[in-house]
Amino acid sequence: MIGKGSGIRIVIPMMLSAASPAEVSLVLPIGLLVSGLVLIGVEFFLPTVVLGFLGAVISFAGITLSAAAGATTCAVFSAVFLVVLTLEFFAFRRLLPQTAIGRSMINVSSNEGAAVPAAAGFAVYVGKTGKAVTVLAPSGTVEIDDTRIEAFSLDGFVERGAAVIVTEAGSGRVTVRRSR
Questions:
Q1: Residue 152 CB contacts under 8 Å (≥ 6 apart), including other chains
Q2: pLDDT digits (tens, 9 = 90+) for 60-119
């Protein structure tokens, strides 16, 4: 029977190994840290979330196991993890645009040579009268001098067939008002 003063003690082990810090093998912690960093590196190029999560967990397991060799060793493992992770990130930023996956994720097109309607082509219609081919609510199509043009109404809603007058020319369309 266990009673008061029976001498039972609960011992909580503070280290994972009974060996002294000098005798602890670092093969497993190094292997875990390296494999975790490799998985995180692969995650940059194959975004799955799973590989990055597993890499982080495995790396932290390696760092935790390195604590058995002492606080200094654990600090070195942590520093190596942070430095390599930073280098992976910058390598990712530099190399990704050159890979097929990176080119598919990054918009590298330019507007150079793109067709942009010239406002000068519609300037000849300023002051002319026409009719609304479609309902302008507030944009639609108008017909001026037997030419159909995209138009924007300053008066808001304009019924189909209503007479309109062009007040200004913009890029690709004209601005109209109801003719009174």
A1: 136, 138, 139, 170, 173, 174, 175, 176
A2: 999 999 998 889 999 999 999 999 999 988 888 888 778 777 777 776 666 565 555 555
Length of the chain: 180
Residue 110 forms part of a structural domain: no
Q: Does 1 fall in a domain?
A: no
Residue-number span of the structural domain to which 66 is assigned: 25-105
**Is pLDDT at 34 greater than 80 in this prediction?**
yes
Mean pLDDT on 21-41: 88
- Residue 13 CB contacts under 8 Å (≥ 6 apart), including other chains: none
Report yes or no on whether pTM surpasses 0.70: no
Relative orientation angle of helices 27-45 and 71-95, to the nearest 10 degrees: 20
66 burial level (CB within 10 Å; 0-12, 13-18, 19+) = buried
Instruction: Please give the Cα distance from 27 to 68 (Å, whole number).
Output: 12
- Hunting for tokens 């602890």 — which residue is that? 24
The Cα 140–Cα 130 span in angstroms is 13
Name the residue among 74, 73, 69, 71 with its Cα closest to residue 23: 69
